[in-house]
Amino acid sequence: MTFYRRLVSFQPLHRGNPPATETPAKSLVAALGVTQIIAWGSIYYLFALLIVPLERELAIGRATTAGAFSISLLASGLAAPWVGRLIDRVGGRGVMTAGSIAGAALLLALSKVQSVWMLYLVWAGLGVAMAATLYDAAFAVVTHAFAHNYRRAITALTLFGGFASTVFWPLTAWLIERVGWRDATLCWAVLNLAICAPLHWIFVPRRPAGHGDGILDDTTGEGRSWLRNPAFLAFALSFVGQSLAISAIGVHLLTMLTERGLAATEAAAVGAMVGPMQVAGRVLELTFSTKLSAVQVGRWAVALLPAALLVLLGAGTQWGWLVVFAVLYGAGNGAMTIVRGAAPAKMFGREQYGAMTGAMAAPAMVARAGGPLLASLAWILGGYPLVLGLLVLVSALAVVAYHAATVRHTIRH
Question: pLDDT higher for 354 or 260?
């Protein structure tokens, strides 16, 4: 009960009687939570279940098929700064509603694809739709909407989003089995149009709360110069390294484990533990949120990734060590999702939050798109031990970059 009260005790931006146009805090978070589950599940996580059907119907290879999703991540990264600036300027209602409508239209188009060029074009468009509907856009909305408890709102949204794969992977697999992948995709188009678009239009504020009235203060005095701030650049570099390592592991983990001699079911069981551990990491972050700032949480959470990869490197097929890997990897990744959303506002102010997070998301998305490919090249040169060794190095450099970015803030505060 204490956990629930802590999670939902949001404080809106305005003191006293809220203006008639202000969205009640719990309604906004609940609405965005539902749309996060649907958007992540029906677009981002959909691709993994479409790989085999697309290969079969379009007569294309695995690399060609995977390239479509890489294109979507690149498009999402390129669109992220523009989406963030737009939310800063005009608010999230129109942006997120348009993103849901575009997502629905593009899923409809995906259900009709007959060629590789059309597949790539549709997924590029879906990348832009993801930039307007997933975490970065939602984080910008709630960060502008709450004076103090934006971090708690971000945590709540990540807890909602953490259930997207749990809900949509089995549901999508069931639909594909029953009605085929094209009609399954069409069902998710309807879901985005009938649920996500209305929820965004009704509950997301029309413009950033306090926009233009001096309420959104830049407490650090660095908000307007963040792009030239070495701390911001180091902070962004840290998330680039983490994104590259996490995307590479996400694609190669099961193959890596089966190559060691684990059965496919055993490898899948290790992968399945990561999701719940991500949720556990976010719950722990919420538990300590009254004692530690998001910046301070990040100082230990960022170190869990190289630690987890080192464990994986030496684990072999020993089940106990593989469990340790899943716990460290999942908990660190889950907590860092919140840190990525909350720490920039703490360090650099909130006036240009959307632009800041968009600028961070762009190179991180490029790294996420390129991570699996770079890991594949390393595998050709030296197998998975070389892959893991390089990922340990990259994630360790991400730790150094994070500490370099936050040491000044830690000393000052």
Answer: 260
- Residue 117, judged by CB atoms within 10 A of its CB (0-12, 13-18, 19+), counts as exposed
Burial class (CB in 10 A: 0-12, 13-18, 19+), 113: buried
pLDDT of residue 247: 86
Task: Report which of residues 275 and 332 the model is more confident about.
Answer: 332
Which whole number is the average pLDDT over 44-58? Answer: 87
| Confidence check: pLDDT of 147 > 70 | no
Tell me the C-alpha distance between 68 and 58, whole Å.
13
Select from 394, 280, 391 the least CA-distant residue to 335. Answer: 280
Structural domains of the chain ordered from first start: 24-203 (1.20.1250.20), 223-412 (1.20.1250.20)
